[in-house]
Write a structure and sequence with these properties.
This protein has 7 helices and 5 strands. It is mainly alpha-helical and 197 residues long. Strand 3 and strand 4 form a beta hairpin. The N and C termini lie far apart (49 Å).
């Protein structure tokens, strides 16, 4: 019988494999990760697998001591895998929805991209990447396209060498060789999804 740690390792693997299967899964994951941007990918993945609606997570002591909130009795912690000691072990965090308030308790600050930040973000994208536009969402799509094109220009030969002879060679366009069709890759990366304005 597998240990709890082994069960959560398997959950992490299943979740990671499922993320790239459908773009909807990837965007659902990104929605969760955007709220938990201070956590590393592995922790974001575990939080997404167990509580995709989580908004602000912290361990028991942070909720009790720093935030002056209490973790409700019976709340189920979100297991995170800690491999810093050379072998995996579990530690738990709780979402703000698992906590209750006390006198002088603090609410977590949940970052949101609002109208006040749009101009600053637009200016930063223009200054950093030389891409301007009326909408930040379009600027981000253009920056993504530019970065993909630059990456392909710098690494396309290596990618072709890896893909040549593999199953990826015929993935997107049936018998078409994806490595010979740079525009297909760029088009794939530049798909215009409905980005929230």
């Amino acid at each position: 019988m597998p240990s709890k740690t082994e069960e959560y390792l398997a959950l992490a693997q299943r979740t990671a494999n499922g993320l790239t299967r459908y773009w909807e899964s990837w965007t659902d994951y990104l929605t969760t990760a955007s709220r938990l941007y201070k956590y590393p990918f592995a922790d974001q993945l575990m939080i997404y697998a167990q509580r995709p609606d989580a908004t602000a997570c912290a361990d028991f002591d942070i909720w009790n001591n720093r935030m002056n909130r209490y973790v409700r009795r019976g709340a189920k912690g979100i297991a995170l895998l800690d491999e810093s000691s050379g072998f995996p072990r579990l530690h738990y965090v709780f979402d703000v929805s698992d906590t209750g308030v006390r006198r002088n308790s603090r609410d977590p600050e949940v970052w949101q991209f609002n109208d006040d930040l749009k101009q600053a973000a637009s200016e930063m994208l223009n200054k950093t990447y030389g891409i301007s536009g009326e909408r930040v969402s379009q600027q981000l799509a253009d920056v993504t396209g530019k970065l993909v094109a630059d990456y392909w220009d710098n690494n396309g030969g290596d990618i072709r060498a890896i893909v040549d002879g593999s199953l990826l060679k015929h993935t997107i366009h049936g018998d078409a060789n994806i490595t010979d069709d740079v525009s297909s890759i760029r088009n794939l990366m530049n798909m215009n999804y409905d980005i929230k304005r």
